[in-house]
Amino acid sequence: MLVFTIAISKLYFVLESELYIDRMYYNLIKKCETCDGAKRSAQNDFERGIYQIVQWGMGDSKTSDVTAEVLETKYKIKTARGGCVTNRTIECYDTEMRKLLAKKYDDKIYLSAYREAAQRVYQEDLARYIYQEKYRKRPRPQP
């Protein structure tokens, strides 16, 4: 009976973590139980050089992915996907972390990262469109 109970509880925790799309977001939920605790956790993470922010909502996934990539490569800031519905305690963590990062770098790092990402995505889409148009207009061989 004891082995069965341990196996079921282990399975529950594995399945619970799989319900969340993003593993980093799941880990934030597990360590942030209250708003004050989340703020302290953000301060501790910041002091240790662990920079994590949360992206809420669906957004333009292509631009969002590239924005997260820019933030990680330029500033070592990792982005967790929070989904469409915000979580109050994780919002406390995210707000505190963003304040600390804005003091460290600049309050416009998020905007500049988004602009860089949007420009990259636009250039990729434009190149793809030009390529498709170039080969779409080729004359077809006559039978």
What is the fold's blueprint, element by element?
Elements: H1 2-19, H2 23-31, H3 35-47, E1 51-56, H4 61-75, E2 77-83, H5 88-104, H6 109-136
Parallel strand pairs: 1-2
Helix pairs in contact: 3-5, 4-6
Short description:
This protein has 143 residues and is mostly helical. 70% of the residues lie in helices and 9% in strands. It starts with a helix and ends in a 7-residue tail after the last helix.
What does this 3D model show about the protein?
By secondary structure, this protein is mainly alpha-helical. The chain is built from six helices and two strands, in the order H-H-H-E-H-E-H-H. The protein has a two-stranded parallel sheet with strand order 1-2. Strand 1, helix 4 and strand 2 form a beta-alpha-beta unit. Helix 4 packs across helix 6. The N and C termini lie far apart (77 Å). About 3% of the residues have low confidence.
Top keywords for this entry?
elongated; 70% helix; two-stranded parallel ribbon; 143 residues; mainly alpha
Distance between the termini: 77 Å
What about the largest sheet?
2 strands, parallel
Low-confidence stretches: 14-18
**What share of the residues lie within helices?**
55-70%
Spatial order of the strands in the main sheet? 1-2
Tally the beta strands: 2
Overall spatial form: elongated
Our Rg estimate from Cα atoms comes to 21 Å
Q: What structural class results from the helix and strand content?
A: mainly alpha
User: What's the average pLDDT?
Assistant: 82
**Helix segment tally:** 6
Which range does the strand content fall in? Answer: 5-15%
What's the helix-strand series?
Answer: HHHEHEHH
